[in-house]
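Subject: Sanity check before I submit

Could someone independently write out the structure tokens for this chain? I want to compare against mine line by line before I put it in a report. The sequence has 108 residues.
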Amino acid sequence: EVVIIEWSSVELAEQRIEMKEKFIKSGYKIIEVSYDEMNAGAAMIVEFNNLKTGGTGIICTRTCLEGFTEDVRKIYNEYFSPIIAVDLKVHGMVGGSSVECMIQPVEL
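---
Independent answer below. Compare away.
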């Protein structure tokens, strides 16, 4: 299980420490993204079960994927397979939205 977070969005250092400890105790892997990556949509993704591998994949916008640093891209590739990037540039500019607003996961 993974948590994607941009820490400067949590104002108080005490809260950041407390959150980080709770995530770690709960067994979550923390993926830290930068402010620029967050603005590119690094956390606005849809996760899905990959029945072929038994793991999970993600769907994100192409803008999101292109906004990742190489380090974050490596981490995403480690935890998610496949990563499907869709081009929603016009929708994002006009509607200000992301892939998570366009696709709703359905439990099967």
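---
OP: Matches mine. For the report I'm noting this point. The longest strand covers residues 56-61.
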